[in-house]
Amino acid sequence: MPQPTREGQPVPQVKFRYRADNEWKEITSDALFKGRTVAVFSLPGAFTPTCSSTHLPRFNELAPTFRDNGVDQVVCVAVNDPFVMEEWAKSQESDNVFMLPDGNGAFTEQMGMLVDKSDLNFGKRSWRYSMLVRDGIVEKMFVEPEEPGDPFKVSDADTLLHYVNKNAREPDQVALLTREGCAFCAKAKKLLDDAGIPYADVPLPHSIRTRALGAICKAGTVPQMFVNGELIGGSDAVEAWVQQRRR
Description:
Low-confidence stretches: none
Oligomer: single chain
């Protein structure tokens, strides 16, 4: 099981080897943490369910908000080899996160977070946690409770962000239902793009479009925009919403 947190202590001094753009690179703890504010989250392994479906994608989504609140970089650490981490990064929503392999477990062991998962045929892996590091010193850690399995209760991105700034505003989650060749859809996407608002474009194939629109939003035409689970509406509603955001 993990050891007590290292709050108030320096991060371990190690040299990481990783791959980027199909090349070998190195970075030291000092280069990564000294004189900087870094949000770190560590997890049991690449391609594992919770790590891939929730932990990494949410940190990636909130990384710009972390930066807006004084965090220089968001880093994901896992006891995996550099090739695995590189391939996982390619397959995931991780453009905003520095994917850092701790292949030999040196950093994780000195953090007191190396645990034995031989029962799952994983070998030695990291316990799940997150932390905020300022100028090489661990300021705050959120370590998952010592429970069987893979608990995921406190090391999430939202918890760490709200530690950094309890009033931090999370980005809106925007999705746009569209169809290919729709001029109104193109107009709505341009409005969102020009306003710098990230969104998920969900093109509906003609074979299911009518049923899908009726079932999802009781509408018959596209585009249809949703924000944080709430239906905003069609093209005119998108324009009104974007204008309201600009005020």
